[in-house]
Design a protein that fits this description.
The chain has 18 helices and 13 strands. The protein is mainly alpha-helical. The longest helix is centred in the middle third of the chain and has 37 residues, at 450-486. The structure holds protoporphyrin IX containing FE (HEM).
Length: 711
C-alpha cells in the first residue's frame, strides 16, 4: 500500500476504534505537549550537537526530525519563529536512570506503537526486515567489523550507500518509534538503535507468519505472537564508529551478464557464499532460509517504481487486509514454479519468466504475473554447476515442502543475524516494573491514548513525506547528471546559490496536518536545452527500466524538495560513478542501448561495442528532455551541486591504475554499476564517528534464562 495523506487521515477512526478509543474525544487541547519550550527554565545556549533532549541541558533542536543531529539550545536564546522542529518534550515522569533493557510492559508499549504504524502502512513490515539485515549483514567475522550495531540508523551516510538505497522510510519510522517509545510517560528506557532494528524484523516476520493479523486484535493467536515478541533479547550496544565501507559485506545482486544465465546463477551463488557465509558466518542452510524473507515485500525501486513487483503474490503489501504473508512460498516458487532441475536447463527454458523480454541482467521478470526475481534468488533453485558454492537447492527443497520447518529455521537464523558482531550479553525483557509512576497497561494497545495515536500517525505522515523527498532527490540527481554529461558542448550553468530558506516554525510532533508535498516551479537557472535535438534520440537517455512507460512528470513534480528540507542530499559527500569519458559526446542510440559503464571502463567505452546492460523492451519512446526541466534542483537545495567539482570526479582513463582506496572508496565503475542503483553511488571517504548517543551503562535487567525466539 502506498501511504499518503488521505489514507492516514482516513485511517485515524479505524485505528482509534481498534484501540478502543473514541476518536471524537481528541481535540487540539489533548495534544498539547506535556512541556513546551517556554515552560522550561531558561538555560544558557550550549551549542552542542545532540540527537535528543537527553543530550542537552535544555532542548535539542533540529531543522527536521530526520536530520541526524541537531544543536542544543537554551529556550531563551532562540526566537520560537526560527525553530523548525524540536524533539518532543521529556516525559512527565522522573526518569533519572533509563535502562537499556525494557521490561515486559514497556515491550507491550513498543508493540502498540509499531502496530499503529503498520496498521496505516503495511509496507513498513518488509522494509523493516530488510533494514535489519542491512545493519547486521555488514558483519565481517574475518576483519571483525560491522554487525548489528545500529550504524544504519545512527550514521546518516550509511543510508546514502547504494546498497541501502530506498531505506529512508523504514529508518525514519524506526527513529520516530524509538523516540515515541522512550518518551512515553510509562517508560524509562534508553534502548539502542541496534536493538530497535533487530526487534523490528522480529516483529514484522512474527506478525506476518502463519495468519497475518493485527497484534491489538486480542485473538488468542495475536496474544501468542505478542508473548513471543517478549522473548526478544536486548542489550546490543550501538557502535561509536561506523564505516560506510562495511556495506561491502552485504550481498549484492551480481550484475555481470557474461556467460549467460547458467553462469549468472553460479556467480550469484558465489556471492551468497562469499558474503553471507564466509563473512557473515551463516551456514548454507541459514543463508537459504534468511533470503526466504523475500516471501514478503517488493522490489520497489531497484528497477524503477513502475516495475516494482513482489517475489510471490502473497508477498504483496495488500495480499491480505493485514499485509503480506510470511511463509515458505518463496522457496515453493523456486521449486514448483521453476520446474527445471538445473541451471543449464533453466537457461534454455526460463519459464515461468517471460522470455526473452523477461530477462534482464541480474533480474528475472514475469510481466504477466508482475513478479520479480534476482539472480541470487534463482541461485537457490539449482545445484551448483561447479564447487564455487554449496548446494543451496537442497535446503530450498526442504523449506518448500514444510512451512513449519521453514519458520523454525528462519527464526533461529534471524536470532543469529541479530547477534552478528555483538559481544555484549543479551537479556530478555524484565518483569514489569513501576519505573515511571505507573505501569503501561499490557496488551492490545491498552496504554496508548488518543493523543498518542494521533501523534504517531502524524509522525508517520511526516516521515513518509521526507522519505519520498529523499528518494526523489536521488532520482532528480540522476537525471541531472545524465543530462549534464550528454550535453557536452553546452556550458552547463551552475546552479546559483540561493539563500537557505528560513525553516518554518512547527509545533513539535503534534502537527496533525499531513505534510504537504510541494509542487516544483520551473526555474530558469536549471533549464536544460539539449545540445542536440530530441528528435535525434530514438531511445531514452534515462538508463532506468522504469522508463518502460513515459515518465509522468506531473507526478514527479510533486516530489521535489521543499524549503523545509533544509538538508537534502549532501552533495559534498557524493561521488558520481555513472559518467564515463565516452559519454562526453552525444550518444547515438541507434547503435548503443546503454549509457551504463561496464567493467571494461578502464579505457573509454566503445559504445559501438557495448551491449545492453539495463535496457527495457519498451524503451522506444524518446524522452522529451524539455520536460525534464522539472527534475532539476530547486532553490530549496541549500547546497547546490558544484558542477566544477563533480566533473573532476568523473572516471577517467587514468583510472586504469589501481585506486588508492585509502583516499577514495571507489571512484571506478565497478561491475555493480550495471544496475541502475549505482547512479546513486555515494561514498563517504573516511570513516566518521557515529552520532550515536552512548546508552546508559546501567543494564538494570535481571538475568533470566536465555529464551530463544524459535517458533
Ligand atoms: C543474496 C542476498 C540478498 C540480496 C541480493 C537481496 C537483494 C534485495 C533487493 C535488490 C531488494 C529490493 C530493494 C528495492 O528495490 O526496494 C530486496 C528487498 C528485500 N530484502 Fe533482500 N536481498 C538479500 C537478502 C535478504 C535477507 C537475508 C533479508 C532478510 C533477512 C532480506 C530481506 C528483504 C526484504 C524483506 C525485502 C523487501 C523490502 C520491501 O518490501 O521494501 N533480503 N533485497
Amino acid at each position: 500500500m502506498k501511504f499518503n495523506a488521505t489514507s492516514f487521515v482516513s485511517s485515524l477512526p479505524l485505528i482509534a476504534r481498534l484501540f478502543g478509543i473514541d476518536p471524537n474525544e481528541s481535540d487540539e487541547e489533548n495534544l498539547t505537549p506535556t512541556a513546551s519550550p517556554s515552560s522550561l527554565s531558561p538555560t544558557e545556549t550550549c551549542g552542542l550537537e545532540c540527537k535528543t533532549d537527553y543530550d542537552c541541558p535544555s532542548t535539542c533542536r533540529r531543522f527536521n526530525r530526520y536530520d541526524p543531529f541537531g544543536t542544543c539550545v537554551g529556550p531563551s536564546s532562540t526566537s520560537p519563529s526560527t525553530i523548525a522542529m524540536e524533539t518532543p518534550a521529556p516525559t512527565i515522569c522522573e526518569c533519572i536512570d533509563p535502562s537499556i533493557i525494557p521490561d515486559a510492559c514497556e515491550v507491550d508499549a513498543l508493540i502498540d506503537i509499531m502496530e499503529t504504524h503498520v496498521l496505516v502502512a503495511h509496507e513498513l513490515l518488509p522494509q523493516w526486515t530488510r533494514a535489519a539485515f542491512h545493519d547486521a549483514g555488514t558483519f565481517d567475522r574475518n576483519a571483525n567489523v560491522g554487525g548489528a550495531n545500529g550504524c544504519l540508523l545512527n550514521h546518516f551516510p550509511m543510508r546514502l550507500e547504494p546498497e541501502n538505497a530506498f531505506l529512508h522510510l523504514p529508518l525514519n519510522t524506526l527513529m520516530d518509534i524509538k523516540n515515541e517509545w522512550e518518551q512515553h510517560p510509562s517508560t524509562c528506557i534508553r534502548v539502542s538503535s541496534a536493538d530497535i532494528l533487530q526487534f523490528a524484523a522480529f516483529f514484522a516476520t512474527t506478525r506476518q507468519s502463519m495468519m497475518p493479523e493485527s497484534l491489538i486484535s486480542g485473538t488468542p493467536s495475536s496474544s501468542a505472537k505478542r508473548e513471543r515478541l517478549k522473548t526478544f533479547l536486548w542489550g546490543r550496544p550501538d557502535s561509536k564508529i561506523c564505516d560506510t565501507m562495511w556495506v561491502e559485506n552485504l550481498p549484492s545482486n551480481p550484475s555481470t551478464i557474461v556467460g549467460g544465465i547458467a553462469s549468472r546463477c553460479t556467480n550469484a551463488g558465489r556471492e551468497i557464499k562469499e558474503k553471507m557465509m564466509d563473512r557473515n558466518g551463516f551456514t548454507a542452510e541459514e543463508a537459504t532460509v534468511l533470503i526466504g524473507a523475500h516471501s514478503i515485500g517488493v522490489i520497489r525501486n531497484t528497477f524503477g517504481s513502475s516495475l516494482a513487483g513482489p517475489w510471490v503474490d502473497s508477498g504483496r503489501d495488500n495480499a491480505t487486509p493485514n499485509g503480506a504473508i510470511f511463509d515458505n512460498s518463496y522457496h515453493d516458487f523456486l521449486v514448483n514454479s521453476v520446474v527445471e532441475n538445473d541451471a543449464n536447463s533453466f537457461a534454455v527454458n526460463v519459464a515461468p519468466f517471460d522470455n526473452p523480454q523477461g530477462i534482464f541482467p541480474s533480474w528475472f521478470r514475469d510481466y504477466s504475473a508482475d513478479i520479480d526475481h534476482l539472480d541470487t534468488d534463482l541461485a537457490l533453485a539449482f545445484p551448483p554447476l561447479n564447487p564455487s558454492h554449496p548446494n543451496f537447492s537442497a535446503f530450498t527443497n526442504s523449506f518448500a515442502s514444510d512451512n513449519i520447518h521453514f519458520l523454525k529455521t528462519f527464526f533461529a537464523a534471524l536470532e543469529k543475524m541479530g547477534r552478528l558482531g555483538v559481544r555484549a550479553k543479551l537479556l530478555p525483557a524484565t518483569e514489569c516494573e513501576d519505573r515511571c509512576g505507573k505501569h503501561y497497561q499490557t496488551g492490545e494497545g491498552g496504554g496508548l491514548d488518543a493523543a498518542d495515536i494521533l501523534r504517531i500517525v502524524s509522525q508517520l505522515g511526516n516521515s513518509t513525506a521526507f522519505a519520498d523527498e529523499a528518494i526523489s532527490q536521488v532520482q532528480a540527481k540522476r537525471v541531472y547528471e545524465i543530462l549534464k554529461l550528454t550535453t557536452p558542448n553546452r556550458q552547463t550553468k551552475s546552479p546559483t546559490p540561493r539563500p537557505t530558506p528560513q525553516p518554518q516554525s512547527r509545533r513539535p510532533t503534534f502537527n496533525l496536518r499531513p505534510t504537504q508535498k510541494p509542487v516544483a516551479r520551473p526555474n530558469s537557472d536549471f533549464t536544460f536545452k539539449p545540445a542536440y535535438k530530441p528528435s535525434d534520440q530514438t531511445k531514452t537517455l534515462m538508463p532506468t527500466p522504469s522508463l518502460t512507460k513515459p515518465v509522468d512528470f506531473n507526478q514527479t513534480k510533486t516530489l521535489m524538495p521543499t524549503p523545509s528540507l533544509t538538508k537534502p542530499v549532501d552533495f559534498n559527500q557524493t561521488k558520481t560513478l555513472m559518467p564515463t569519458p565516452s559519454l562526453t559526446k552525444p550518444v547515438d542510440l541507434n547503435q548503443t542501448k546503454t549509457l551504463m559503464p561496464t567493467p571494461s571502463l578502464t579505457k573509454p567505452v566503445d559504445l559501438n561495442q557495448t551491449k545492453t546492460l539495463m535496457p527495457t523492451p519498451s524503451l522506444t519512446k524518446p524522452v522529451d528532455l524539455n520536460q525534464t526541466k522539472t527534475l532539476m534542483p530547486t532553490p530549496s537545495l541549500t547546497k547546490p551541486v558544484d558542477l566544477n567539482q563533480t566533473k573532476t570526479l568523473m572516471p577517467t582513463p587514468s583510472l586504469t591504475k589501481p585506486v588508492d582506496f585509502n583516499q577514495t572508496k571507489t571512484l571506478m565503475p565497478t561491475p555493480s554499476l550495471t544496475k541502475p542503483d549505482d547512479f546513486n553511488q555515494t561514498r563517504t571517504l573516511v570513516p566518521t564517528p557515529s552520532f550515536t548517543v552512548s546508552p546508559s551503562n546501567r543494564p538494570t535487567a535481571k538475568l533470566e534464562s536465555n529464551k530463544t525466539q524459535m517458533l
